[in-house]
Amino acid sequence: MTDRSAVPTIRGYFYQFDRSILSILELAEATESVAIECIEDIDVRTATDFTAVQCKYYEKTEYNHSVIKPAIIFMLSHYKDGLTAGRPSIKYKLSGYFESGQSKLVMPFNIDFLKENFLTVTSKKITEKKHEELNVSDQELKGFLEALSIDVDAAKFDDQFNTIIGALAKRFDCSLFTAEFFYYNSALRVIKELSTQTDEALRIITRQEFLERIDTSSILFDEWFVAKRGKAKYYQKLRNEFFVNGLNISSADRLFIIHVSESSYQRGAVKGLLKTISRKYSKLSPREAKPFSPYVLLCGIDDAEIAALKQELHNESLRFLDGYDFKDAEFDGASISRSATHSNGPDLRIFSYLFEAQQTFQSFLRSREIYEFYEITPVADFGDDAIKHVRLQVPDYKDIESII
């Protein structure tokens, strides 16, 4: 049985990450910034204000004053420290989603309500008045209330997420799919990277810097994104977007780049993947006016193993070209790219080295598509903007078959 006890906690992390992304997207100016995990979960710096925001996602919790009391006490403590140190004043915001009970908190409230419900703590019959411990005067509490805003009716998890996707689609003038699987994916990665920096200065990012960092429009995948979407759903979405047509694909010079780590390499699995690519992305029947077949580049496999793999494919009657017409010949791009025929194929075209693929694809003037499945680092760009190059990070190459 699946243990779902941690699900609300995990969703809480994603909710906070999403709120960080949305806070950045909502900045009015390119130079305005957000800091992640500094004073609060999110510190928003605009041209006129500095607001420390703590956001919570209480999916299965009824609102009670005691739930947010620790956060209010922390904010008051920081407020008092700022007064003592003579720091410029800042604003404080607590934003949370609760399953129910929001009507218990009526805004605005006065100092007496603040003291009684948020600053008084009773434990083991001992009552502590935090405002007295912090030596905060009533006048200072009034100033704190003016700086404090509380929202216990924040957006639901899915509603906040959909708002982000809509904002990204509008900002980058793209489809909702592209907004989620390219830009949101990348945004989640950037927020994760910021939140793990030990130096506070490195956890600050402007709106302009954020948009530049997430504009990696040809790279997909982040493990946190996949964890949120679910591996099977993630791969199904990729399949629907890029590979659903299968045998109904149009004629194009289509290259599949497969990265295989030495530790996970299995000849049988790679051989099976090559046969699947050949079967799904070739059209060699007599009914096809312009027969064609795909290209493959295998990365991470040594020369001896490539030779052994090709030998087995040859023994199993898979017709392929590799650009080498005789023993000790130099690579010939014209050879590997010669026109396919109904009777002689090839079923597949196999590059052994990246330079072969780059040299050959740069020479074409027709439609070119590259689908790269990499584990850690993709190959260098092919240097031609006319080539469609989609990079998909798939840690286990055996999962590629479920995508294509």
TrEMBL record:
NCBIfam families: DUF4297_antiphage
Name the record gives this protein: CD-NTase associated protein 4-like DNA endonuclease domain-containing protein
Source organism phylogeny: Bacteria, Pseudomonadati, Pseudomonadota, Alphaproteobacteria, Rhodobacterales
Domain of life: Bacteria
Key words, A-Z: Plasmid
